[in-house]
Amino acid sequence: MFRKIKNALISVSDKEGLIDVLKVLKKNKINIISSGGTYKAIKSLRFKCEEVSSYTGFNEMLDGRVKTLHPKIHAGILFDRSNKKHYKQMIKQDFKPIDLVIVNFYPFQKVVINSKNKDKIIENIDIGGPTMVRAAAKNFKNVLIITDKSDYESFIKEVNKNKGGSTLKYREYMSSKAFGTTAYYDSIVSNWFNDTLKIDFPEKKTFFGKKFSQLRYGENPHQKASLYISSYNDEELGLNKLNGKELSYNNYNDIFSSLDILLSIKKMPATVIIKHANPCGVSCNKIAIKSFVNAFLSDPVSAFGGVIACNYKINEKIAKEINKNFIEVILAKGFNEKALKILKKKKNLRIIDISKYKKNNRVLNKNFGNSFLIQNKDEIIYNKKDLRCVTKIKPTKAELREIEFAYNICKYVKSNAIVLTKDFSTIGIGAGQPSRLDSCKLATQKAFKFRKKSIRNCIAASDAFFPFADGIKTLISAGVSVIVQPGGSIRDKEVIDAANKAKIKMIFTKTRHFNH
Amino acid sequence: MFRKIKNALISVSDKEGLIDVLKVLKKNKINIISSGGTYKAIKSLRFKCEEVSSYTGFNEMLDGRVKTLHPKIHAGILFDRSNKKHYKQMIKQDFKPIDLVIVNFYPFQKVVINSKNKDKIIENIDIGGPTMVRAAAKNFKNVLIITDKSDYESFIKEVNKNKGGSTLKYREYMSSKAFGTTAYYDSIVSNWFNDTLKIDFPEKKTFFGKKFSQLRYGENPHQKASLYISSYNDEELGLNKLNGKELSYNNYNDIFSSLDILLSIKKMPATVIIKHANPCGVSCNKIAIKSFVNAFLSDPVSAFGGVIACNYKINEKIAKEINKNFIEVILAKGFNEKALKILKKKKNLRIIDISKYKKNNRVLNKNFGNSFLIQNKDEIIYNKKDLRCVTKIKPTKAELREIEFAYNICKYVKSNAIVLTKDFSTIGIGAGQPSRLDSCKLATQKAFKFRKKSIRNCIAASDAFFPFADGIKTLISAGVSVIVQPGGSIRDKEVIDAANKAKIKMIFTKTRHFNH
């Protein structure tokens, strides 16, 4: 259904690109109605335009809060062109059809980012704009709605091709974009209110995202996928790619996993290596390159083709160390020039500067199609006052610091996590098992394979209690001398007895860290 | 800031509970303005009310499409009571303040569920309602907005307590709910448009959810959590709990994982056991109880305390079998009376009827706080035309059927999945490893431990190619005689040679099934 445009209503907060639209409207003899800043902009570009107030006969009031909220405007947009009764009513009121609506909104998001003034933020909630957009989008059979300046190009083509009109298909597609825009806008407003009032679990919850990049494919080549930014600042992801191929779905999945762990470690240079979304090496060291080397040594086989994240700047020496290995992605808080030159020798290596990356996830959601679970992020390692040594022999202060490191890593390892550490480096990680005993075996096997010399007197962290003593016996016989775990099993006594018998130290934290 | 209400605007599609609201308004001498069906309802309840058209002096038109979209209404809502200029303008126009807005919307969702008539669905997109709600919510400093009949009770208390007024705190909270409601409404409309036009990755994407239940806690006791329904029909989850304690976050996580696998299996009775979000036993058998027993035998240790999902009705005999074990949740397509009686003997056992559960997830999203990834669901097992036997010995037809079963389960196992099956039952699952060799070892160890007699001539499925021959050598020496994998490694020849040397069969599918 081709439909010729006679009258257009324009109200844009962002005036960029307007002139090209005005030219095509003029060429096709389309009348323009507009108000406020848009009216002034159109006039200053020397195009003809009627002001909304002269059109409706009603002066805009309340500092522009009420301009377009008028029956003449909305009947013009909403009336059903195929309905004779509607036609009669329009003629009786002397109302004209409005066939094209071009609107973008008050920049609520930008104000949220740039201002802490609550009144100013609220003043930037657009009321008139979304109403016109929603009315036009509902009536796409008759009206064309444009809500995004990036659509001006296709709009101009469409109108030129259809001699001043548009096709139903185009109008319906633009209508879907329009409701996408109003839903997105109100989701941001709604989330801002909830953030302000600290409501994490409202009755009705929406998540918003703006497409950042279409990915080649998803986890597998037969799945399509895209990455969306979900932040008031929806232009920047905070990941600055300096080299290498496009990032894939699996790259992003690993990158975000690695950054989550990395940003949980403070004060010390730290390196995190991720493979298949699980950490396979994490290390802290005052000397950055040592943290890199030790993280790698934790499981050099798994690190092959992995994603590595560093919370320090990469220098020449570290760059050379990195290049000894095959990795897919290196993330760091900056790279010096010489380091970059060295790393860029590997053309496929994705090099990403994370200096501007910020975490902002107070709640996490897990989606299952028909439903989703939301929970607060697991932000604490443990409460120090809950820490309790349950064995006869007590850990040293140095061991307590190591316990904190090990237990923190444990938080990020999936399903029955056992993490062995020595000198603030993982030396064995057991993950993804339905049984804790299996994770104990995996972790010690890894340590024996790659860090045999370090296993004696190492520390083991377990994300949840040991249901039986078998798991800790496996750890003890491998050489573990300190175990940290939440405690709380009905067989705790059995477990503590085994620890005492082996003369090792055991700490209960009370804090469990399941992560699936 | 306490603010007395003089004039209220009411426009509700759902009239339930209205009478109690009207009583409190009358008691506090609050004038009511209303239109259309709400006006009639108020009059028939014998309360005083002015019609919007008489209030504005403008007759409603276009079958009610334009009623409240009038400056007198919106200036009344939006004007800033602390602004002298605004006051003067209001007085000049003879406009009165509207201090309370009670609105709920056209039932777009219900029409989507109950009708396939696109015009009817679109006609039920409310334009006037959301505009009033958004205007009032923006101006919460001066105006109270009520959008949900479940808030009538608190509203009545608030107005009674404040002698016909309300507090700023209450108004702000109701405003956050109002924007939650408009965001939710437009997200549903937007998703409906995208569904209709088959757009999976729009420029702006929103997800909507209505809180179904607040959970005791999240994955861990120090995390708060809630479950939301994300569906046009947001009243029902499709899980009918017949017995047992409240479901926890981890229960739901395991339940949805189990149902995902269960619903992928057609035609045959099937049982799926989940522990820590990974399957630890899956079995199909023409005789339902055999599928239950075999699923359990796959790893009876891990199945302890697990979640079990069955695509058949539970009878007495199966119920007795279930009760032999400790499990947390049993899901099934119905339970007969005797079976229920037996199962209910275990007071804590959660018994859930899934007869009404439907899958509806075309896209999945994974959330990282500042961003999210969306991808199409991994819906195919493989394309039959891509199947290629790469070894000298070819599989039988029976083996090909088993391959399909094994490869399907593989899709649901996380990170480097190896699944061993015999007679449509898993006998060993290796999961969650950064290296494929480790998964091969885990899967064969499990099989040796629990299904030693079945391991000879079993089938192995791998979610991705084998990078080296070491993994398949582990499988072969355990007794595997058929391997199904996507292929595509640069060392495929090495892998095929090893298979031929061992005289086993190997199938390439071309279709990878990463799942992290």
- Percent strand of chain A equals 15-25%
| Average pLDDT over all residues of chain A | 94
> What is the third-level CATH name, the topology of the largest domain in chain A?
Rossmann fold
Structural class of chain A: alpha/beta
Major beta sheet of chain A, specifics? 6 strands, mixed
Note the overall shape of chain A: elongated
Q: Specify the CATH class of the largest domain in chain A.
A: Alpha Beta
The assigned CATH architecture of the largest domain in chain A is 3-Layer(aba) Sandwich
Number of strands of chain A: 23
Poorly predicted tracts of residues of chain A: none
Q: Helix coverage percent of residues of chain A?
A: 25-40%
**Strands ordered across the widest β-sheet of chain A:** 10-15-14-13-11-12
C-alpha Rg of chain A (nearest Å): 30 Å
Name the chain pair whose interface involves the most residues. A-B, 131 and 131 residues
CATH superfamily of the largest domain in chain A: Methylglyoxal synthase-like domain
Oligomer status: homodimer
* Tally of structural domains of chain A: 3
